[in-house]
Amino acid sequence: MVNDERLAFPEDFTWGTATASFQVEGAAYEDGRGDSIWDVYCRQPGRIADGSNGDVACDQYHRYPEDIALMKQMGVGAYRLSVAWPRIVPQAGGAINQAGLDHYRRVLDMLLENGIKPVVTLYHWDLPQYLQEAGGWANRDTAQRYADYAAVLAKALGDRVQTWTTLNEPWCSAYLGYGNGGHAPGICDYGQALAAVHHLNLAHGLGAQAIRAELGDRARISVTLNLQVNRADSDDPADLAAKTRADLFANEVWLGPMLAGTYDQRIHDAAEGLTDWSFVRDGDLEQIHQPLDVLGINYYSTNHVGGRSGAGSERNPMPAQDMVETLPPQGPLTAMGWNQEPQGLTDLLMEVSGRFPKLDLMITENGSAWEDQVSLDSSFPGGKGVHDPQRVAYLEEHLRAVARAIHAGARVTGYFAWSLLDNFEWALGYTKRFGLIRVDYDTQERIWKDSGLRYAQIIHDRAV
Ligand code: PNW
């Protein structure tokens, strides 16, 4: 691959940045917001690496005008944000909190005034705590409560939002939330994790229908999946079988029901002994299988798996992985310990578009964490900034990977860099920085990084 080839993007390509409510908003006790499962999880000793929480985060709840101005300077045409469900329906019983809706109306209005299209995720992991007390995603009723919430948002915000994303990474909600407990609500029970998978699928389908019922064809409906690229250690049948098993539970449990209306029989067979699947009721798959206007894909790295040892790795978040060994990542690693393999993104896009040739795709997250340092440097706006050559290289290489897939025929309509800002990185607290713009958590100052400036240039050139 020639490194100096210049790759261009289509004229109507969407350039965006992404964040999520719990990771940036703060204002956890304002305007009638209720507790989410992440507020409660953060209060449990030992759960969050630096003992932190989302009470203040990046204070975007108050500072959104400044953040929108930064995006405008960056030249982005779209912002992927999520709505905090506990701001909208804070308490059991379902009463709507008008102050929560008003907040998002103001944010959306300012985005639109600045020519930035909102792409709104309804659920990026901040489940109202009262729903957890009733069983959370292991309880079927949560899917119905989600559909009610989706209808409220569509009605209240539908004049301002075209593209809606039902769920962000249900893989994390089900498997980190219920499989190994690394995310809220912190449960380790593979049977519950499989029930959560199904109820998240059901929530997607019921939510999509609720939005459609309210807004008809004015709405573009999507879901965001963190599809895994599992690389088998070798062509040995045991390694290939391990890859297949990981693919089934990572990817096929969502793609099958949502896009084809079925659970692959091999998923049922592999999960024998963990669940009797009685949570899958007649008619559910028709409810889940709804027309999708665009599929969101989050991509960070690849996974390396093997099956020759015959022993599964401990605390695999996914059920039925007893013969899947997680092997050390290969190649250069980011501060997350994730490997960098831009080719994996091209491969994934080609595979998904080969299987669903008519479906539009968008990259709803891609980015990298590094040990950033602030330098005094008058060439930055504000006289100081972060030189982050590794994040710049990651950004360029992954955008080139996207461009190659487009040139090979994949229907990729947009790219959202994760993230606009450094933010609360879940169980890792504030110890990992993904932003194109740095946040000084003492002063809430926003500080440009080279990567943010480079992204602005790429957007301007429409080429990398
Ligand atoms: C995604 N894993 O999270 C999320 O959508 C973002 O909110 C998050 O900040 C970003 O990626 C970076 O981590 C993930 O352990 C968190 O496999 C953990 C995993 C995957 C995705």
Describe the structure.
This protein is of the alpha/beta class and 464 residues long. It has a single domain (14-461), classed as TIM Barrel (Alpha-Beta Barrel). Helix content is 39%, strand content 15%. The protein has helices at residues 21-24, 37-43, 60-74, 85-88, 98-113, 129-133, 141-157, 170-178, 190-215, 237-260, 265-270, 284-288, 342-355, 389-407, 450-461, and strands at residues 14-18, 78-82, 117-123, 163-168, 220-225, 230-232, 294-298, 303-306, 325-326, 360-365, 374-376, 384-386, 412-418, 437-440, 445-448. Strands 1-2-3-4-5-7-10-13 form an 8-stranded parallel beta barrel. A 3-stranded mixed beta sheet has the order 6-8-9, with helices on one face. A two-stranded antiparallel sheet has the order 11-12. Strand 14 (437-440) and strand 15 form a beta hairpin. Helix 7 (141-157) runs parallel beside helix 9 and helix 13 packs parallel to helix 14 (389-407). The longest helix is centred in the middle third of the chain and has 26 residues, at 190-215. The chain is globular. The chain starts with 13 loop residues before the first strand and ends with a helix. It binds 4-nitrophenyl beta-D-glucopyranoside (PNW).
Give the helix/strand layout.
Blueprint: E1 14-18, H1 21-24, H2 37-43, H3 60-74, E2 78-82, H4 85-88, H5 98-113, E3 117-123, H6 129-133, H7 141-157, E4 163-168, H8 170-178, H9 190-215, E5 220-225, E6 230-232, H10 237-260, H11 265-270, H12 284-288, E7 294-298, E8 303-306, E9 325-326, H13 342-355, E10 360-365, E11 374-376, E12 384-386, H14 389-407, E13 412-418, E14 437-440, E15 445-448, H15 450-461
Parallel strand pairs: 1-2, 1-13, 2-3, 3-4, 4-5, 5-7, 6-8, 7-10, 10-13
Antiparallel strand pairs: 8-9, 11-12, 14-15
The structure holds 4-nitrophenyl beta-D-glucopyranoside.
Residues 20, 23, 168-169, 172, 226, 298, 365, 418, 425-426, 434 line the site of 4-nitrophenyl beta-D-glucopyranoside.
